[in-house]
Design a protein that fits this description.
CATH topology of the largest domain: Carbonic Anhydrase II
Mean pLDDT: 84
Shape: elongated
InterPro entries: Alpha_CA_prokaryot-like (IPR041891), CA_dom (IPR001148), CA_dom_sf (IPR036398), Carbonic_anhydrase_a-class (IPR023561)
EC number: 4.2.1.1
Keywords: Lyase, Metal-binding, Signal, Zinc
Organism: Paucimonas lemoignei (Pseudomonas lemoignei)
Distance between the termini: 162 Å
CATH superfamily of the largest domain: Alpha carbonic anhydrase
Largest sheet: 13 strands, mixed
Number of domains: 2
Protein name: carbonic anhydrase
Length: 347
């Protein structure tokens, strides 16, 4: 009777322990309990197993905070707004500090450099055709212009007593081209696009610009002309060839009128034309010419320039000549010494 009681009590206690955790498995059928000590031992073992099973079960993870909830978004927005306000305040303080600082003093150039720069700028604007900055002073105004005073192949010249020979014709290859007009303070200069060339004695020169002088710088057997156009060419090696077109009064010139129509309103401010110019229409019908070696007729008076002076003049109307005369009443360098140079002319 006592044994049955202990067996029944053991089963009730084990059932209670299993109710604490469904993972506990009781022996089925339960072995009969012999005495109270054995019952206590079984109960202690069941509790120990229940505790081990509880520890072995994974912990239920905490439910993460929803970062996209309304409260979370509002909190993050407040943080960003506060940061933006701090940045704005810092920038404002930096601006005030910068504005309150005195400007840094400009570093003055060395006296010698400043003096040289001022001198170069002065002479660039003061050489003229008359007076203190006139042609007789060019050679002493700048060491780089010494050739203007001591050169032996200077231009222009009075062309006379040339050798009459069968000269190769100048091959003109001029095309309609874009252009701009510049009043550079000494003349009106027309700058041309690429693609216009002359070829002579096996060399090809590119037409870069042409400009005007009044009266003509060249003379033919002592005779001067109202104006002259100088068409400046350069070859691949940098050698220059200038074609001179003497001007006499006559009918209007279409190309020159196109240039006058595009005169700039200010000096040193190039006017870009919208319609192309046809330099071929400047040339006279006859292509006979004089040729000699000379120089540029303005500072720095560089020598080694091939001159080609067309014998037949071109014509401009009196009104067209008068327009240039209003800008430059005189911009011609005086005649230079021939100094034994040879002049050749077409038969």
């Amino acid at each position: 009777m006592r044994l049955r009681f202990f067996a029944l009590a053991g089963m009730l206690l084990l059932s209670s322990a299993r109710g604490a955790d469904q993972s506990i498995q009781l022996p089925s059928p339960a072995a009969p309990v012999k005495n109270a000590a054995e019952l206590k031992e079984r109960i202690a073992g069941a509790n120990a197993n229940a505790k081990l099973d509880q520890q072995a079960k994974p912990a239920t993870p905490a439910k993460p905070t929803d970062r996209y909830s309304k409260a979370a978004l509002e909190s993050e927005e407040d943080d960003i707004q506060a940061l933006a306000e701090r940045i704005s305040t810092r920038l404002a303080n930096l601006r005030k500090e910068r504005e309150s600082r005195p400007p840094a003093p400009r570093k003055k150039p060395a006296p010698a450099v400043a003096k040289a720069a001022a001198h170069d700028e002065l002479i660039a604007h003061t050489w003229t055709y008359e007076g203190a900055g006139g042609p007789s002073q060019w050679g002493s105004m700048n060491p780089a212009w010494a050739t203007c005073a001591n050169g032996t192949r200077q231009s222009p010249i009075d062309i006379r007593d040339g050798f009459r020979v069968n000269l190769d014709p100048v091959q003109f290859d001029y095309k309609p081209t874009r252009f701009s007009v510049l009043d550079n303070g000494h003349t009106v200069q027309v700058n041309l696009g690429l693609g216009n060339t002359i070829t002579l004695t096996g060399r090809t020169y590119e037409l870069t610009q042409f400009h005007f002088h009044l009266p003509s710088e060249e003379r033919i057997n002592g005779k001067g002309y109202p104006m002259v156009l100088h068409l400046v060419h350069k070859d691949a090696a940098g050698r220059l060839a200038v074609v001179a077109l003497l001007v006499e009064e006559g009918e209007p010139n279409e190309v020159v009128q196109h240039v006058w129509n595009n005169l700039p309103l200010e000096k040193n401010d190039a006017q870009i034309a919208t319609m192309p110019l046809e330099p071929a229409k400047l040339l006279p019908e006859r292509r006979d010419y004089y040729t000699y070696m000379g120089s540029l007729t303005t500072p720095p008076c560089t020598e080694g320039v091939l001159w080609i002076v067309m014998k037949e003049p071109i014509r401009l109307s009196s009104q067209q000549i008068a327009i240039f005369a209003r800008l430059y009443p005189m911009n011609a360098r005086p005649i230079q010494a021939l100094a034994g140079r040879r002049i050749k002319e077409s038969n």
